[in-house]
Write a structure and sequence with these properties.
Elements (H helix, E strand, L loop, with lengths): L4 H4 L18 H8 L6 H21 L3 H17 L6 H8 L2 H9 L37 E10 L9 E5 L20 E5 L5 E7 L4 E2 L5 H8 L5 E2 L2 E7 L6 E7 L18 E2 L2 E2 L2 H7 L6 E9 L2 H18 L4 E4 L2 E4 L3
Parallel strand pairs: 1-11, 8-9
Antiparallel strand pairs: 1-4, 2-3, 2-7, 5-6, 7-8, 10-11, 12-13
Helix pairs in contact: 2-3
Length: about 325
């Protein structure tokens, strides 16, 4: 027996505004209306702004069908390039400056705290947990480096028990995950700060390198006639309950790409000098005198400090843009009262 109409259709269609003939001028309003019924004020706001800006982009540029199809193909290829050890979409976000912008918005830092930088596409979750003082390198071609670091709060109190994730490229400018023959993590580790907030490790001198250019992001950089290079650097990520998570990078002063990082990750406060290990330090840490030395103090904000600063920044930014908003779960939504 064939199904009846009542078997196949809802008993009553959702109430919707009448849809007139859609035009360049009225389609945005109608799409926003259709996308604003989730019951989630933040989701509705995100969709309203996304639709508005994307539609305005198309109108302002008079976007052609062939250009939009090329963009769709580019995004499709970007997704196809992703794997468990390579995130092409993060790389795309990085080279567009979006990663740095979002980090600056979501994790603002009080003036005396260490500033953030990009995560990058090559962080992994399989780095070994090593005791303080260990070597995280297997690269015998790299120049040995001793890193002596401390971590404290914004008042200068040492922070013990902080999880510190550290990773860098090898001496040829490649991360371990870029090798098809990778058997185990290298040039990366996880440590935990001691009772005095200290952690130290042995590594190699960071080197500069080009980001991968064998995918759609590399082709985009070529079309834009942009270089693909990053200055020499080492990544750090800090986590502990009650602290605002910090993802940051230390850059070695004097690199030729210091002022033109392809992913816009360099900040003046994150550019550091390398020294050489003296006789006393060599004896204390068991490394040869003259070894490269990196000393750095990381200052972490509390979750509350960051939350309060983010709220203030958000409301001030909304005010400057002439938007009437309120905060729900520390995120702006339209204030309709």
């Amino acid at each position: 027996m064939a199904p009846t109409t009542s078997d196949t259709l809802p008993l009553s269609a959702p109430t919707q505004p009448l849809v007139p003939d859609l035009t360049i001028d009225n389609i945005t309003e109608k799409v926003v209306q259709a996308s604003s019924q989730s019951g989630d004020a933040r989701l509705n706001y995100l969709m309203e702004r996304l639709v508005t800006h994307v539609h305005d982009f198309a109108r302002e540029t008079r976007l052609s069908t062939s250009e939009w199809m090329a963009a769709i193909q580019f995004l499709t290829q970007t997704g196809q390039m992703c794997s468990p050890v390579r995130q092409e979409f993060i790389l795309l976000s990085d080279v567009l400056g979006l990663s740095m912008l979002i980090d600056s918005i979501d994790h603002p830092k009080p003036p005396n705290c260490t500033q953030g930088s990009v995560l990058g596409p090559f962080h992994t979750s399989d780095a070994p947990h090593l005791p303080i003082g260990s070597s995280m390198t297997t690269d015998t071609a790299g120049e040995p480096l001793l890193a002596l670091c401390t971590v404290c709060d914004s008042s200068g109190r040492p922070l013990s028990g902080v999880k510190v994730d550290i990773w860098e490229a090898d001496s040829s400018g490649h991360y371990d995950v870029q090798y098809a023959s990778r058997q185990a993590p290298s040039e990366r580790c996880v440590m935990t700060s001691d009772v005095d907030g200290g952690f130290w490790f042995r590594a190699i001198r960071p080197v500069g390198y080009p980001v991968p250019d064998d995918g759609p992001v590399g082709r985009l950089l070529g079309l834009l006639k942009r270089h693909s290079c990053r200055p020499a650097h080492m990544h750090f990520m800090f986590e502990k309950q009650g602290l605002d998570p910090l993802i940051t990078t230390l850059f070695i002063r004097g690199d030729e790409y210091e002022t033109s990082d392809v992913v816009f990750g360099v900040k003046t406060s994150l550019v550091v000098d390398l020294d050489r290990v003296d006789e006393d330090t060599a004896a204390k840490y068991g490394v040869p005198q003259g070894t490269l030395l990196l000393r750095h103090k990381f200052v972490l904000a509390s979750a509350q400090e960051t939350e309060e600063l983010r709220d203030r920044n958000a409301m001030e930014a909304m005010r400057r843009m002439g938007l009437k908003t309120k905060l729900v779960d520390h995120l702006p939504v339209p204030d309709l009262d």
